[in-house]
Specification:
The protein has helices spanning 25-44, 68-80, 118-126, 128-141, and strands spanning 54-62, 87-93, 109-115, 142-151. The longest helix is centred in the first third of the chain and has 20 residues, at 25-44. It is elongated, with a radius of gyration of 33 Å. Helix 2 runs antiparallel to helix 4. Strands 2-3-1-4 form a four-stranded antiparallel beta sheet. The chain is 37% helix and 22% strand.
């Protein structure tokens, strides 16, 4: 009564049957195709390796090391540098007692800034917030400072 109607009268209603030996053969073929396509596409694109993080160390000798307020201002100003893009971390503090003879701890304050990469360090050097911090805090309060940049490799 409700026999399926032929899609095309010439061919009738016959359908392609799945392979009775391996019903998952079509899925396997698709998986192999996707894997090969992924390998091919991966070899076509070259993504540059990210440059390692850079650690920026600033050691400061204050004009008036006895003034706790100067030290606090510099620490606060250094922590505000976190807002600059590419800065991952900022730490500031004074020296610990020496670990042994010959260890120089003559500086009054150290600031360690970790950057995402070298490009972030280069942008930081030109950033108006960094330049303003140097003009407003570093130059008036610091007698001398040394900067060391460490490559994260």
């Amino acid at each position: 009564m409700f026999a399926p109607r032929p899609i095309c009268p010439k061919f009738g209603t016959q359908r392609k049957m799945k392979d009775p030996v391996n019903p998952y053969l079509d899925q396997l073929r698709l998986l192999v195709f996707l894997a090969l396509a992924g390998i091919f596409l991966a070899s076509c694109t070259t993504v540059p390796a990210p440059s390692p993080a850079v650690t920026h160390v600033v050691l400061m000798w204050l004009k008036h090391p006895e003034r706790a307020g100067d030290r606090a201002q510099l620490i606060r100003a250094s922590h505000n540098l976190r807002m600059i893009p590419g800065v991952q971390r900022v730490e500031a503090g004074g020296p610990l007692p020496p670990l042994g003879p010959g260890v120089d701890r003559s500086f009054d304050l150290g600031v360690v800034i970790t950057f995402r990469d070298r490009a972030a360090l280069q942008r930081y050097k030109k950033d108006p917030r960094h330049l303003e911090a140097m003009r407003r805090y570093l130059r008036p309060l610091v007698r001398r400072y040394e900067v060391y940049n460490l490559d994260g490799r």
